[in-house]
C-alpha cells in the first residue's frame, strides 16, 4: 500500500524538472530553427549566384573565429597543455574538411538532404559496438545501421520530393522545384561523409575537454585552426575557380553571410552545448532529429520547395529508429545512471523517515 507521500511524489516528481527545463527547450528549438534557416539562405545564395562554396564558408569562418577568440580568450586563464592543443588543431583540420564537404553536399543535394545526412555520424556508435561492445548490442546497432542506410537511400531516391515521392498524388504548381532529378546515392555520399566527420570532431572535442569552460576555449582554437587550414584552399579557389560575377554579387547577399556565421557557426555551438550539458541531448539523438525535422517542414513550406511531407516523415522515422538503435549502449548507461540517482534519493528519504518519531 502506497503512502500519501509516495502518491504525491508520483504525481508531481516530473513537473518541477519539466518546468525547469522548459526555457532551455525553447532556446534549443529557436537556436536550431535559426541555424536551419541559415542553411536555406546559404543554399539559395549558392544556387542562384553560383558562388564558390569554399570562399563562402571561408568568409563566414573568418569573423566567426575572431568572435570565438574574443569571447573565450584561450590565451588567458589556466595554460592549455600540448595534449589539449594538438588534438584541437587536428580537430580544426577535420572541421575544415567537414565544412568543405558539407557545403558541396548542400549545393548538390539541397538543404533537406544535407541536414538529414548530418545525422549519419551515428554510424560511429555502430563501430564502437563492434570493437568494444557486447554481442547482444552489436545486432541492435547493425539493425540501426540498416535503418539509417534505408533512410538515406530513400532520401537519395527523392521520397522527400513532391515530384519523385510515391505518396504525392497531386503536384502543387506554386511550389518552387529546385532540382529536376533526385540527387542519387553517389551524390549523397558527400554529405554523409561530412556527417561522419562532424560526429568525429564532436567525439574528439569531448575526449580532449571534460570541463565546460575548457571545452569552449578549445573550440575557439579549433575554429581558428579550421580557418587557417581553409585559407590556402580558399585562395587557390579564388585564383583558379571563382568568377568575377560571383564576387560582384557578394555584397548583395549580406543576410546569407550574416546568418551562416552568426546562427550556423556561433550560436548553434552554444545552443548545442547547453542542450548537451543541461538537457543531456546530444546531436545524434532522436530528440534532436525531431526538432530539426519540425524546423525543416516549416522552412520547406515557407520557401515553397519541392517537398513531400509523407515521404519526409517516413524517411525521418527510419532515420530516428536507426539512430536510437545505434546509440542503444549510451541509452543503457544513461538509464543506469538515472536509476542509481533515483535509488540514492529513495535511500536518503528512507533514512530521513526512519529518524522521525512514529
UniProtKB/TrEMBL annotation:
InterPro entries: EmrE-like
Residue stretches in coiled coil: none
Transmembrane residue ranges: 21-43, 49-71, 83-102, 114-132, 144-162, 182-200, 220-240, 252-271, 283-303, 309-327
Keyword Cell membrane: no
Topological type in the membrane: Multi-pass membrane protein
Top-level taxon: Eukaryota
Keywords: Membrane, Transmembrane, Transmembrane helix
Main localisation: membrane
Keyword Transferase: no
Cellular compartments annotated: Membrane
Protein name: Zinc transporter 5 like
Lineage: Eukaryota, Viridiplantae, Streptophyta, Embryophyta, Tracheophyta
Amino acid at each position: 500500500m502506497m503512502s500519501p507521500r509516495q502518491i504525491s511524489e508520483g504525481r508531481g516528481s516530473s513537473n518541477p524538472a519539466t518546468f525547469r527545463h522548459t526555457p532551455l527547450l525553447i532556446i534549443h528549438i529557436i537556436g536550431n530553427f535559426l541555424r536551419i534557416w541559415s542553411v536555406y539562405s546559404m543554399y539559395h545564395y549558392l544556387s542562384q549566384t553560383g558562388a564558390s562554396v569554399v570562399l563562402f564558408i571561408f568568409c563566414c569562418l573568418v569573423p566567426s573565429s575572431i568572435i570565438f577568440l574574443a569571447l573565450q580568450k584561450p590565451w588567458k586563464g589556466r595554460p592549455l597543455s600540448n595534449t589539449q592543443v594538438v588534438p584541437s588543431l587536428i580537430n580544426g583540420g577535420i572541421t575544415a574538411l567537414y565544412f568543405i564537404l558539407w557545403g558541396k553536399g548542400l549545393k548538390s543535394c539541397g538543404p533537406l538532404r544535407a541536414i538529414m545526412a548530418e545525422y549519419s555520424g551515428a554510424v560511429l556508435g555502430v563501430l564502437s559496438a563492434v570493437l568494444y561492445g557486447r554481442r547482444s548490442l552489436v545486432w541492435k546497432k547493425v539493425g540501426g545501421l540498416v535503418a539509417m542506410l534505408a533512410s538515406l537511400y530513400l532520401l537519395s531516391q527523392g521520397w522527400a520530393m513532391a515530384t519523385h515521392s510515391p505518396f504525392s498524388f497531386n503536384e502543387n504548381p506554386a511550389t518552387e522545384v529546385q532540382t529536376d532529378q533526385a540527387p542519387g546515392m553517389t551524390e549523397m555520399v558527400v554529405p554523409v561523409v561530412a556527417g561522419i566527420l562532424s560526429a568525429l570532431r564532436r567525439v574528439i572535442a569531448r575526449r580532449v575537454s571534460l570541463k565546460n569552460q575548457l571545452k569552449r576555449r578549445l573550440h575557439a582554437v579549433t575554429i581558428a585552426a579550421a580557418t587557417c587550414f581553409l585559407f590556402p584552399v580558399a585562395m587557390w579557389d579564388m585564383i583558379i575557380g571563382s568568377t568575377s560575377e560571383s564576387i560582384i554579387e557578394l555584397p548583395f547577399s549580406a543576410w546569407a553571410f550574416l546568418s551562416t556565421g552568426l546562427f550556423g557557426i556561433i550560436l548553434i555551438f552554444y545552443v548545442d552545448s547547453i542542450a548537451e550539458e543541461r538537457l543531456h541531448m546530444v546531436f545524434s539523438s532522436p530528440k534532436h532529429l525531431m526538432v530539426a525535422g519540425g524546423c525543416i517542414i516549416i522552412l520547406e513550406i515557407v520557401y515553397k520547395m519541392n517537398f513531400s511531407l509523407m515521404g519526409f516523415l517516413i524517411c525521418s522515422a527510419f532515420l530516428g529508429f536507426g539512430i536510437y538503435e545505434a546509440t542503444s549502449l549510451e541509452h543503457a548507461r544513461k538509464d543506469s545512471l538515472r536509476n542509481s540517482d533515483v535509488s540514492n534519493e529513495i535511500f536518503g528519504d528512507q533514512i530521513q523517515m526512519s529518524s522521525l518519531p512514529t
